[in-house]
Automatic annotation (TrEMBL):
Signal peptide: none annotated. It comes from Streptomyces rameus. Keywords: Coiled coil. It holds the Pfam family PadR. This is PadR family transcriptional regulator. Residues 12-95 form the Transcription regulator PadR N-terminal domain. Residues 195-205 have a biased composition (Polar residues). InterPro entries: Metal_resp_DNA-bind_regulator, Tscrpt_reg_PadR_N, WH-like_DNA-bd_sf, WH_DNA-bd_sf. PANTHER family: CONSERVED PROTEIN (PTHR33169:SF26), PADR-FAMILY TRANSCRIPTIONAL REGULATOR (PTHR33169). Residues 126-167 form a coiled coil. Residues 184-227 are annotated as: Disordered.
Amino acid sequence: MSRRSGILEFAVLGLLRESPMHGYELRKRLNTSLGVFRAFSYGTLYPCLKTLVTNGWLVEEPGHTHDDAVAAPLAGRRAKIVYRLTAEGKEHFEELLSQTGPDAYEDEHFAARFAFFGQTSRDVRMRVLEGRRSRLEERLEKMRASLARTRERLDDYTLELQRHGMESVEREVRWLNELIESERAGRDLRGSESGGSAQQDTTTGSTGGLPRPGETPRTDTSDDTAT
């Protein structure tokens, strides 16, 4: 399994844990709630869904809405298939949530993991955040060393691009420091003191009132017009 397909499977299981969905709804949620999946297609999603069904983590059910029941026979089309998480799928997703290995610190995987922090225990959140910060600090050190070696050979625009990249990493490190401080202080998603796990924002998988980086890219909230 490729790293990207593994991230997609994780995200699909996480969204379906909230509620069953058909393919169009699922793709739209992946596009709007998780910016890392903006560019993927149905040709990527449906093989993933079939794999999850084969593994016993999802089941396919016919759509039960009135529109599905009436429109499908009139149009000569099959009713939309709804995908539902099984008990085994929920258990597998919870196992994935508990993992804190190096993959969880990489750019795309971290974004997906962070989107489901509301469903993640505090100690796991801390390990992922600290691992991500360590990874970025290593990256920043390498960028600074590279810039020091090559500064005299770079034109102004290339130099400015490298500086911009370093500033982006520095911003994320500051943001992570704020998140880690909040977790250590026991603040939940609304910023109040709490000893328990953070509450989930089930509409977006976001982290409510936790500190955010001031200039991080926003997710794409445009409607998906695909049919």
